[in-house]
Amino acid sequence: xxxxxxxxxxxxxxxxxxxxxxxxxxxxxxxxxxxxxxxxxxxxxxxxxxxxxxxxxxxxxxxxxxxxxxxxxxxxxxxxxxxxxxxxxxxxxxxxxxxxxxxxxxxxxxxxxxxxxxxxxxxxxxxxxxxxxxxxxxxxxxxxxxxxxxxxxxxxxxxxxxxxxxxxxxxxxxxxxxxxxxxxxxxxxxxxxxxxxxxxxxxxxxxxxxxxxxxxxxxxxxxxx
Length: 225
Hints:
Helix 1 (3-19) crosses helix 7 (138-162). By secondary structure, the protein is α+β, with helices and mostly antiparallel strands. The chain has helices at residues 3-19, 34-45, 64-71, 78-83, 101-110, 115-131, 138-162, 175-184, 217-220, and strands spanning 56-60, 86-93, 166-170, 193-202. The longest helix is centred in the middle third of the chain and has 25 residues, at 138-162. The chain is built from 9 helices and 4 strands. It is globular. The two termini are 28 Å apart.
């Protein structure tokens, strides 16, 4: 890449990070275009995941009544649910173990692995998941899958900021109640998915009340040479 182009690209990316903030209140009159939101979702779809398992699903909640139900059990999302152009509940796969039907589907049908490569990959990944303690129980496996969803979340928020769209990641919700609402609606597909995190997208109703503050690069890095 040309040095001038690279420098400009880096400046644009850093400007997007400076622009982005956890937007609590959106301008409800402004809507993200279909094209722009498709772009945001595509950056989530293309995000990396461990062995390419893609253990995520994005529920785009636009129905006002459904948003209201979530709002009643999501203390950290009330203003966002009421005003955001688009609202996502990100689900994590519950059965992403190396020997699950989902793993076989991802490796054979999505990644087109031949049988011999699949067998080797599956065995190696079984060792990895076992050594990391992910296979201890359903919770440890879900926690591992949920970590993967945050990669997609971060990419979507950054991509949104690069085209002037605001966002807010949200963990402030009653897990059991959100789980119940989604389960009753059949959105967890008989336990194949569970709740990981939420995110709101739209356009800020007001500018942040304070400047972005972060520790210095020296405070958060330690080089081992």
